[in-house]
Amino acid sequence: MLPSPLTGLNLSEVTSARSFPDAVATALREGILTARLPAGTQLKQDHLARHFGTSRAPVREALQVLTGEGLLVMSRHRGITVAPTDPDDLQEIAEVRTMLEAHALRLSIPNLTAADLKEAAALLDEADAAPGDPIGQSDLHWRFHRALMRRAARPRVLAQVESLHVTVSRYLLPAWTAAGLSIGWVASHRKLLALARRGRGDDAAELNARQVEEARARVAAWLAGQETP
């Protein structure tokens, strides 16, 4: 039986056939990111279709989306399962994020508008006001970064960065929830915003790289502690 937190998805809110795959993907994604669906959990299409009261087609599409995000893996013997957590994977995500985000920040920051900077500041204020909501914090964290990178005019780069933010959230959110490792991210990102306001793209890229590595190191240490007998 699926873990009970997934029963909170209200399909009565779905307004079109196109919405069903998105709704199923959203429910499963939240279950994975909060570790309610732990690594190795099998997800069977028939079971999911019955659970969500829909056909297999939208379930299949939702599973394909989550597989593309790196949250699910497929094997011949076990079918579709929640992807394992792996320190090497976390390291690679950090490395790729650093490269792509540095490129995007350097291109975007000289072109940011006053409205972009105001939006970024408002997102940090909103995060400050709701520190106890890990899912909300993760969403605000990504939206802040997107606000600073959107003027890069590199849609493929930003799409890859967004996918990486989703994937890394399955490492960050359980750590944030269990150990409070998100404490301080808003203050550190205000420094990033200050550099963006001054048009210092290179400095912002370097600070962002340090922040990504510091977060990776904290989460890797937490993961290592979880594996200790």
From TrEMBL:
The keyword Transcription regulation applies. It holds the Pfam family GntR. SUPFAM superfamilies: GntR ligand-binding domain-like, Winged helix' DNA-binding domain. Gene3D superfamilies: GntR ligand-binding domain-like, Winged helix-like DNA-binding domain superfamily/Winged helix DNA-binding domain. Residues 18-85 form the HTH gntR-type domain. GO terms for molecular function: DNA binding; DNA-binding transcription factor activity. Keywords: DNA-binding, Transcription, Transcription regulation. PANTHER family: GLUCONATE OPERON TRANSCRIPTIONAL REPRESSOR, TRANSCRIPTIONAL REGULATOR, GNTR FAMILY. This is GntR family transcriptional regulator. It comes from Muricoccus nepalensis.
